Amino acid sequence: MKKGCFITFEGADGCGKTTQSKLVQEYLEKSGYEVIWTREPGAKGLGQKIRELLLHYDGDVAPMCEAFLFLADRAQHIEHLIKPAVNAGKIVICDRHTDSTIAYQGYGRGEDIQQLKYLNNLATGDIKPDLTFVFDVSTEVAQKRVGSEKDRMESAGLEFHKKVRQGYLEIARHEPERVKVIDANNDIDKVFEDTKKVLQSFLDLI
Ligand code: TYD
Predict the structure, then answer these.
(1) Rounded to two decimals, what is the model's pTM?
(2) Residue 18 Cβ < 6 Å to ligand 1
(3) Could you report the average pLDDT of every consecutive run of 10 residues in the chain (206 residues)?
(4) Which of 13, 19, 52, 68 to mutate to test the pocket of ligand 1 (most atoms within 8 A of CB)?
(5) How far, in Å, from the CA of 204 to the mean position of ligand 1?
(6) Pick from 129, 117, 90, 101: which is nearest to 40 by CA?
(7) Is residue 19 within 6 Å of ligand 1 at its C-beta?
């Protein structure tokens, strides 16, 4: 592999993507790749302050304010972490990225999806993930996994999370080359086996 690449992990709250992204990181490192694991919102520095606002502010938040905060975090993240790491030949694993904005603010909150796509491109300077995993799990199972201590986004209700789930499936339907859906209703080992298969075919091609 001559240049680095950018892989994102997506799915509704409680889908298990963070666990899978860490397993993938370990697997790739053991295979000799240099890997950076990161996340949105709030990878580091200013992003962490934005994350605090997004997840724990307890007053009213206008939907487009919410969207712009996620986008502001993304612009900072791309410029200060993702772009330099990919250019240095590393594999960047990112727990949530642009598709979260489309699924949550677009399909979930009902903001205009074309506009959000445009704003995503503006925030990322048109850098796109080379591969995206969507971990799909029934909303009821996902909500049980989240438990009772919920942050602002997790408290948005069952109907909202159902729309988010459908949103991810729509995204995957529109971009089947980039976005791969993994059935995350299974146990961790089986989900990881399925993830590794997709990952290996991707790595064989680059
Ligand atoms: P986090 O604690 O990181 O949750 P998870 O472990 O599920 O990733 O919280 C991030 C929350 O922010 C999550 O509910 C999804 C939401 N989110 C958006 O609504 N839009 C976005 O663009 C991003 C990146 C996240």
Answers:
(1) 0.96
(2) yes
(3) 87 96 98 97 96 94 96 98 96 98 97 98 96 96 89 90 97 98 96 98 92
(4) 13
(5) 31
(6) 101
(7) no
